[in-house]
Structures are given as structure tokens and as C-alpha cells.
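Quick one: structure for this chain?
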Amino acid sequence: TIYKGVERMKMNMTARKLTLDPSFKERAEKKLKKLDRFFGEDADVMVTVTPEHNEVTVEIVVRADNMIFR
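Got it. Here's what it folds into:
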């Protein structure tokens, strides 16, 4: 699913083995808007949320200008 809350970056959220609340999606978009000033319009952001034991792991990958930031 692509969310358009981030102004210039394209954002894709994936949840594995769980369902994301709308409040989590809103909070993630709000936090990722801060990265918007560092990357151009061609930046793609992939957010992957995975449960592990009693924790939840959030992985953020930004692809911009032929580089990958994790």
C-alpha cells in the first residue's frame, strides 16, 4: 500500500503476520516527513513491520540516487 502523507517521497508500508493500526501509520508518516528534506523526489521509502517473540521490529529502507539507506 502506498501512502501519500509524505510530501515528496514515495512510501510503502508492509506488515508481516500482523495488522497495522491507523495511528501507527500516521505516526510513521509524521516521523518520515522529517527525512523529506534530505532526499529528492525520486526517493522511495519501504517500511516493514515484523513481530519477533515479544517485540516488534520496524525496518526502514530509503532508496535515493542509486544508494540504499537502512
